[in-house]
Amino acid sequence: MGSPGILGLLLLYLNVLISHSSAAQQQPLHSVIDAAPKRVAVIGAGAGGSFAAYELRKLADASNIPVNVTVFERASYIGGRSTTVNAFDDPAYPIELGASIFVEINENLMNASQALGLDIRGADHFRPKETEESIGIWDGSNFVFTMKNDSSWWNIGRLIWRYGLAPIRTQNLMKTVVGKFLKLYQEPLFPFRSLSEAAAEVDLLDVTASPGDAFLEANSISELFAREIIQASTRVNYGQNLPLIHGLESMVCMATDGAVSIPGGNWRIFDGVLQAAKADVRLNTSVTEIVKTNDGAVQISSKPTSDLDSTSPDESEFDEVIIAGPLQYSGISISPPLQHIPDDIPYVKLHVTLFASPHRISPEFFGLRDKNAHAPETILTTLPEGHNLGSNPKGVGPADFWSISTLRTISRFVEQEDGEQQREDHYVYKIFSPERPTAKFIAQVFGIEYSHGTSGSVTIAPDNTTIGDLPKGEISWFHEKVWHPYPLLYPRVTFEDTLLAPSIWYTSGIESFISTMETSALMGRNVAALMVRSWQREKDERNDSLTGKIEL
Ligand SMILES: Cc1cc2nc3c(=O)[nH]c(=O)nc-3n(C[C@H](O)[C@H](O)[C@H](O)COP(=O)(O)OP(=O)(O)OC[C@H]3O[C@@H](n4cnc5c(N)ncnc54)[C@H](O)[C@@H]3O)c2cc1C
Ligand SMILES: *[C@@H]1O[C@H](CO)[C@@H](O)[C@H](O)[C@H]1NC(C)=O
Ligand SMILES: *[C@@H]1O[C@H](CO)[C@@H](O)[C@H](O)[C@H]1NC(C)=O
Ligand SMILES: *[C@@H]1O[C@H](CO)[C@@H](O)[C@H](O)[C@H]1NC(C)=O
Ligand SMILES: *[C@@H]1O[C@H](CO)[C@@H](O)[C@H](O)[C@H]1NC(C)=O
Ligand SMILES: *[C@@H]1O[C@H](CO)[C@@H](O)[C@H](O)[C@H]1NC(C)=O
Ligand SMILES: *[C@@H]1O[C@H](CO)[C@@H](O)[C@H](O)[C@H]1NC(C)=O
């Protein structure tokens, strides 16, 4: 059972020469020589890490390079910022707590979903669609625009009526920008070592260099349309206003046609690709340290997440490591220290409040005089005219929240006073806000009687009551979460490289460019492709020297 030795190797070689067609002659020799699998550690089981593992498996198998992929994930679940919680703790009602939508042009997510046989549904599949108006854009005192539930031509007519050619110009501009971006998916640009250079090649640096408002103005898109429609979208998608967020991400916000999601949770894509990758996934395991050893290997120290103070980390050696999440939040130390450490960049702080209630959004709160009127099921926000907060990251303005969406209804059996069970429809809502919503705020928005708290105007902060202080009959279930969901996307023209040091790869540089599940997945595939290319080169070199030896 020892190693085959030179003779054994030659015999094996002869065997395969006999049993294989001439085209594949040399390959089996290599499988033998390279038999020790490439050991890759992936840190993070989100979109980036899971797609890195998926692509490694595909490419390594295709080029006959054995690979062993270990995925370390400090959380107890796969998906990272893409994850669900169950309404009423009932697995029948998973609700997205993080990333909720992707779009048809997101080929990495679409293709993988199809390959995995996952169902892909319209993102508002479950929305009750009970109101005349589906979306309202609120500026803190008025709806500046509302979208009718049904007739899209009627909406288009109203858009043109109010905004003239701006919607069409925006659509065309978005298509041009997206077209440039999609070149990054293909050869000769893919895979790219430097995102800064690749972005320059597809002519997108002008777009990332200017804030959204300046970029739109330069493209003759009216301030009114930019503020009322495009900014409503940058606020719900990224929690920032147009004078802050760069032109590219602003355009991404207008490319949400055909928004879809995976029933049960988008994380199922990442779970599926990790299985397809045959990766060894270690949940509840935090990587604490990466050490480059003298022989060029990478030593990874990890600890159970529940016991980070333990003094004896688990150590294992790898050939390559991929850091697939923002380094600044990873708690990983790297030694010897990196020559260039990725900048800490400011991230948005977002409160996500999910809850269920028999109440509907209060038409009164939103100034609708007709008591029988319904507030739109989705309420987006923008700043009122003349209220310019510039690039201030605290940009929510008078509305106080980014968005309120009605996600679905759930039928509940609720016990009445007489002990009878009665069926009741409860709505499930999602609020995005920069501060934790107070009980008073929620009570007012949903027309709930609530006596506690002070009088005065409604603000989310600073009083310290929370949704949990409201009666159980009014709020039948809730879940609160604070995220660092995406960076503040200030204009910039350079992005972190994919290789931080030899054998230490990084995916999260792309978040300053475009921050979505798809782009993280793209970057995961990108570093995997670069890695396999480098192995291929290594293999070719080895083959060259080996062929030389055999000829001698
Ligand atoms: C509320 C919210 C809404 C969003 N909406 C959308 C949307 O609609 N559409 C969209 O496309 N995107 C959306 N996003 C953004 C999207 O979620 C992210 O861009 C994407 O999921 C990032 O994937 P990632 O793999 O790069 O990072 P992550 O998903 O953050 O994955 C990184 C993983 O690494 C793990 N990790 C970190 N450090 C360590 C360590 N030391 N050891 C072990 N594991 C570690 C983390 O636990 C995490 O699981 C949203 C995000 C949030 C939070
Ligand atoms: C190995 O090298 C030889 C000579 O350079 C070349 O003809 C052959 O295609 C290579 N084989 C592989 C599997 O790369
Ligand atoms: C893959 O690597 C891990 C971590 O080093 C190791 O525990 C496992 O045994 C390896 N699997 C195979 C099939 O080599
Ligand atoms: C991870 O930890 C959680 C508790 O935090 C536990 O419920 C779960 O079973 C653990 N999962 C694994 C795979 O160890
Ligand atoms: C997705 O699938 C289509 C059709 O097979 C293919 O043309 C495209 O290149 C794929 N895209 C990616 C990113 O895999
Ligand atoms: C809204 O439109 C959907 C179809 O898109 C329809 O099923 C629903 O009944 C409409 N609701 C109202 C209130 O018009
Ligand atoms: C809220 O603040 C008040 C006074 O500032 C304090 O007495 C009270 O305990 C706080 N309540 C909670 C739930 O933190």
TrEMBL record:
Domain named Prenylcysteine lyase is located at 148-541
Q: Name one Pfam family in it.
A: Prenylcys_lyase
InterPro entries assigned: FAD/NAD-bd_sf, Prenylcys_lyase, Prenylcysteine_Oxase1
Entry GO MF terms: prenylcysteine oxidase activity
Which residue spans traverse the membrane? none
Example GO BP: prenylcysteine catabolic process
Keywords per UniProt = FAD, Flavoprotein, Glycoprotein, Oxidoreductase, Signal
Q: Which residues form the signal peptide?
A: 1-23
Kindly list the cofactors needed.
FAD
Q: State the family it belongs to.
A: Belongs to the prenylcysteine oxidase family.
What is this protein called in UniProt?
A: Prenylcysteine lyase domain-containing protein
Q: Which organism is it from?
A: Penicillium malachiteum
